[in-house]
Amino acid sequence: MAQILPLEAPPSDCQIAFFQLVGDLVPSTSIFSTCRSISQLIRHQGGIFPSLMPMESNFSKALYTFDIAQNDLAEGFSDNLTVQQVNASVPDIISGFSANIKKIYDLGARSFWIHNTGPIGCLPTILANFPAQEDEAGCAKSYNEVAQHFNQKLKEATVQLRKALPLAAITYHYYKK
Questions:
Q1: CA distance 162 to 154
Q2: Region for 62 from its dihedrals, namely left if φ exceeds 0, alpha if ψ lies in -120 to 50, beta otherwise
Q3: Contacts of 13 (CB under 8 A, 6+ apart)
Q4: CA-to-CA dists, residue 150 to 34, 117, 147, 153, angstroms
Q5: What keywords are annotated for this sequence in UniProt (predicted)?
Q6: How do residues 16-65 score in pLDDT, each as one tens digit?
Q7: 3-state DSSP: the chain helix, strand, coil percent, rounded to 5?
Q8: 68 is in which domain, residue-wise?
Q9: What are phi and psi of 126, to 5 degrees?
Protein backbone atom coordinates (compact mmCIF):
# COMPACT_ATOMS: atom_id res chain seq x y z
CA MET A 1 0.00 0.00 0.00
CA ALA A 2 1.30 3.44 -0.86
CA GLN A 3 2.44 5.86 1.76
CA ILE A 4 2.26 9.57 1.15
CA LEU A 5 5.21 11.03 2.96
CA PRO A 6 5.00 14.62 4.23
CA LEU A 7 6.83 17.35 2.38
CA GLU A 8 9.29 19.83 3.85
CA ALA A 9 6.70 22.53 3.20
CA PRO A 10 3.03 22.26 2.27
CA PRO A 11 2.30 22.33 -1.46
CA SER A 12 1.17 25.66 -2.83
CA ASP A 13 -1.38 24.08 -5.14
CA CYS A 14 -2.34 20.69 -6.50
CA GLN A 15 -0.79 21.43 -9.85
CA ILE A 16 2.64 21.78 -8.25
CA ALA A 17 2.28 19.39 -5.34
CA PHE A 18 4.86 16.65 -5.09
CA PHE A 19 4.25 13.38 -3.31
CA GLN A 20 6.62 10.56 -2.69
CA LEU A 21 4.78 7.30 -3.14
CA VAL A 22 6.37 4.18 -1.77
CA GLY A 23 5.50 0.62 -2.74
CA ASP A 24 2.27 1.06 -4.66
CA LEU A 25 1.51 -0.38 -8.05
CA VAL A 26 -0.11 2.81 -9.29
CA PRO A 27 -1.20 5.76 -7.15
CA SER A 28 -4.83 6.74 -7.23
CA THR A 29 -5.91 9.97 -8.87
CA SER A 30 -7.80 10.77 -5.67
CA ILE A 31 -4.52 12.31 -4.49
CA PHE A 32 -4.81 14.91 -7.24
CA SER A 33 -8.53 15.49 -6.75
CA THR A 34 -8.10 15.91 -2.99
CA CYS A 35 -5.23 18.34 -3.46
CA ARG A 36 -7.28 20.35 -5.93
CA SER A 37 -10.20 20.53 -3.46
CA ILE A 38 -7.91 21.71 -0.68
CA SER A 39 -6.42 24.33 -2.99
CA GLN A 40 -9.87 25.63 -3.88
CA LEU A 41 -10.83 25.79 -0.18
CA ILE A 42 -7.69 27.78 0.67
CA ARG A 43 -8.36 30.14 -2.24
CA HIS A 44 -11.78 31.01 -0.87
CA GLN A 45 -10.77 31.45 2.80
CA GLY A 46 -9.44 34.93 2.31
CA GLY A 47 -6.52 36.52 4.10
CA ILE A 48 -3.08 36.13 2.60
CA PHE A 49 -3.63 32.60 1.28
CA PRO A 50 -5.29 33.51 -2.04
CA SER A 51 -2.40 35.80 -2.94
CA LEU A 52 0.06 32.93 -2.40
CA MET A 53 -1.79 30.50 -4.63
CA PRO A 54 -1.08 30.09 -8.33
CA MET A 55 -4.04 30.68 -10.57
CA GLU A 56 -6.26 27.65 -11.06
CA SER A 57 -5.69 27.92 -14.80
CA ASN A 58 -2.09 26.82 -14.14
CA PHE A 59 -3.29 23.24 -13.62
CA SER A 60 -3.28 22.75 -17.38
CA LYS A 61 0.14 24.39 -17.73
CA ALA A 62 1.99 22.27 -15.18
CA LEU A 63 4.36 19.44 -16.05
CA TYR A 64 3.34 16.15 -14.45
CA THR A 65 6.26 13.78 -13.98
CA PHE A 66 5.95 10.05 -13.43
CA ASP A 67 8.82 7.78 -12.51
CA ILE A 68 7.21 4.39 -12.45
CA ALA A 69 7.93 0.76 -11.58
CA GLN A 70 11.20 0.61 -9.63
CA ASN A 71 9.45 0.15 -6.28
CA ASP A 72 6.64 -1.94 -7.75
CA LEU A 73 8.93 -4.47 -9.37
CA ALA A 74 11.38 -4.59 -6.45
CA GLU A 75 8.55 -5.07 -3.97
CA GLY A 76 7.24 -7.98 -6.02
CA PHE A 77 10.58 -9.69 -5.66
CA SER A 78 10.75 -8.79 -1.96
CA ASP A 79 7.37 -10.51 -1.59
CA ASN A 80 9.05 -13.65 -2.99
CA LEU A 81 7.32 -13.51 -6.36
CA THR A 82 9.18 -15.21 -9.18
CA VAL A 83 10.46 -13.42 -12.27
CA GLN A 84 7.51 -14.90 -14.17
CA GLN A 85 5.00 -13.68 -11.56
CA VAL A 86 6.42 -10.16 -11.57
CA ASN A 87 6.37 -10.15 -15.38
CA ALA A 88 2.73 -11.25 -15.22
CA SER A 89 1.91 -8.22 -13.04
CA VAL A 90 3.20 -5.75 -15.65
CA PRO A 91 -0.07 -5.47 -17.65
CA ASP A 92 -1.99 -4.54 -14.50
CA ILE A 93 0.59 -1.92 -13.54
CA ILE A 94 0.52 -0.44 -17.05
CA SER A 95 -3.27 -0.50 -17.24
CA GLY A 96 -3.65 1.29 -13.91
CA PHE A 97 -1.00 3.81 -14.86
CA SER A 98 -2.69 4.58 -18.20
CA ALA A 99 -6.09 4.94 -16.53
CA ASN A 100 -4.65 7.43 -14.05
CA ILE A 101 -2.96 9.47 -16.78
CA LYS A 102 -6.33 9.69 -18.55
CA LYS A 103 -8.08 10.80 -15.34
CA ILE A 104 -5.48 13.49 -14.68
CA TYR A 105 -5.83 14.59 -18.30
CA ASP A 106 -9.60 14.82 -17.79
CA LEU A 107 -8.91 17.15 -14.84
CA GLY A 108 -7.03 19.47 -17.20
CA ALA A 109 -3.43 18.26 -17.18
CA ARG A 110 -1.77 18.47 -20.58
CA SER A 111 2.00 18.00 -20.16
CA PHE A 112 3.41 14.68 -19.00
CA TRP A 113 6.95 13.41 -18.53
CA ILE A 114 7.06 9.63 -18.16
CA HIS A 115 10.33 8.09 -17.04
CA ASN A 116 10.73 4.35 -17.25
CA THR A 117 12.53 2.13 -14.79
CA GLY A 118 16.23 1.50 -14.61
CA PRO A 119 18.07 -1.81 -14.37
CA ILE A 120 16.41 -3.34 -11.33
CA GLY A 121 18.92 -6.19 -11.37
CA CYS A 122 21.58 -3.69 -10.28
CA LEU A 123 19.76 -2.66 -7.09
CA PRO A 124 21.73 -3.65 -3.98
CA THR A 125 18.67 -5.34 -2.46
CA ILE A 126 18.28 -7.56 -5.53
CA LEU A 127 21.99 -8.39 -5.72
CA ALA A 128 22.18 -9.16 -2.00
CA ASN A 129 19.00 -11.20 -1.67
CA PHE A 130 18.27 -12.85 -5.01
CA PRO A 131 21.06 -14.89 -6.57
CA ALA A 132 20.93 -14.88 -10.37
CA GLN A 133 23.17 -15.15 -13.40
CA GLU A 134 25.10 -11.91 -13.79
CA ASP A 135 25.31 -9.80 -16.92
CA GLU A 136 28.47 -8.05 -18.18
CA ALA A 137 27.96 -5.26 -15.61
CA GLY A 138 27.70 -7.68 -12.69
CA CYS A 139 23.95 -7.19 -12.32
CA ALA A 140 21.25 -9.85 -12.04
CA LYS A 141 20.42 -10.54 -15.68
CA SER A 142 16.92 -12.03 -15.30
CA TYR A 143 15.82 -9.13 -13.09
CA ASN A 144 17.05 -6.59 -15.62
CA GLU A 145 15.05 -8.47 -18.25
CA VAL A 146 11.93 -7.83 -16.16
CA ALA A 147 12.71 -4.11 -16.21
CA GLN A 148 13.25 -4.24 -19.97
CA HIS A 149 9.91 -6.04 -20.40
CA PHE A 150 8.19 -3.40 -18.27
CA ASN A 151 9.82 -0.57 -20.21
CA GLN A 152 8.72 -2.03 -23.55
CA LYS A 153 5.11 -2.26 -22.31
CA LEU A 154 5.29 1.28 -20.89
CA LYS A 155 6.57 2.58 -24.22
CA GLU A 156 3.69 0.86 -26.02
CA ALA A 157 1.21 2.36 -23.54
CA THR A 158 2.71 5.80 -24.09
CA VAL A 159 2.11 5.48 -27.83
CA GLN A 160 -1.52 4.59 -27.11
CA LEU A 161 -1.89 7.50 -24.67
CA ARG A 162 -0.62 9.91 -27.31
CA LYS A 163 -3.35 8.67 -29.66
CA ALA A 164 -6.08 8.76 -26.99
CA LEU A 165 -5.16 12.19 -25.57
CA PRO A 166 -4.75 14.48 -28.57
CA LEU A 167 -4.19 17.67 -26.56
CA ALA A 168 -1.49 16.12 -24.37
CA ALA A 169 2.23 16.59 -24.77
CA ILE A 170 3.73 13.32 -23.57
CA THR A 171 7.47 12.85 -23.27
CA TYR A 172 8.68 9.33 -22.70
CA HIS A 173 12.16 9.30 -21.24
CA TYR A 174 13.83 5.93 -21.32
CA TYR A 175 16.75 4.38 -19.58
CA LYS A 176 18.18 1.96 -22.09
CA LYS A 177 20.01 -1.11 -20.89
A1: 12
A2: beta
A3: 35, 39, 53, 54, 58, 59
A4: 30, 8, 5, 5
A5: Glycoprotein
A6: 343 434 344 444 445 555 555 666 666 666 666 666 666 777 888 889 99
A7: 55, 10, 35
A8: 4-173
A9: -70, -45
